[in-house]
Amino acid sequence: MNDGSNTTWQPGRTAVRARVPVTLHRAGHRTADLVTFTDLPDRKEHMAVVVPGPRRTVPLVRLHSECLTGDVFGSARCDCGPQLEEALLRVAGEGGAVLYLRQEGRGIGLYNKLDAYVLQDRGNDTFEANRLLGRGEDERDYSAAAEMLRALGLTRVRLLTNNPDKARQLADLGIEVTETVPTGVYLTDENGRYLDAKARHAGHTLLVPDALPLASASRTEDLEVSVL
Ligand SMILES: Nc1nc2c(ncn2[C@@H]2O[C@H](COP(=O)(O)OP(=O)(O)OP(=O)(O)O)[C@@H](O)[C@H]2O)c(=O)[nH]1
Ligand SMILES: [Zn+2]
After folding, report:
1. Where does the UniProt annotation place the signal sequence (predicted)?
2. By the number of CB atoms within 10 A of the CB, which of 45, 53, 98, 181 ranks highest?
3. 15-103+140-225: which CATH topology?
4. Catalytic residue numbers?
5. What ipTM is given for this predicted complex?
């Protein structure tokens, strides 16, 4: 199948490449489509988990930045794993999409993120650690996400996030964000300073939604949900 990688990328070129139905164990055994794309601006293998919802409602969308350590291994250093689970549960329940974006370590990559963890263990916060590595505090760019949403026909969205930069960037990229829906704040013994730095430094709004869906017990039994 041609993924368009031999052509020069232009805005609006991205299209759906394949839609593959799956059952999601981590989202109440609901079905969803795994969607891949052609002609993504950064040529990375981003993907979407899409669940059709009622036609008249604005779909719930999560832009989830890859976090191998949190999403896959369940590391308690961050809140990514429980946030991904929450997003899948919500989208499976009401329709919408989770875009899984290959932006590991806020765009600096996995190995650099682990180097940043070493610096954090020496007392630097998550943003200082990136700077000490000679990288930006947050290198994420959401052009690919906007293209994926356009290709999916989702140009008006309710965005599941506590990060105002995601909503700002999406709006600048021509996606109408009708509402920002707060995602859960998952406090562990290890991630307090990390969450605190996000709130103080990057303006994340760390509020707890009224009805936070419960993630699977096996992954949340050692988590508390708390307002910071
Ligand atoms: N560089 C770096 N990246 C981290 C660190 N901890 C988590 N990440 C990455 O941060 C990304 C998640 O971003 P966050 O800032 O936690 O949250 P967000 O996605 O901006 O905001 P929400 O939508 O509210 O979840 C993932 O790519 C993680 O791999 C860290 O200490 N250093
Ligand atoms: Zn994480």
Report:
1. none
2. 98
3. Rossmann fold (3.40.50)
4. 138, 140
5. 0.97
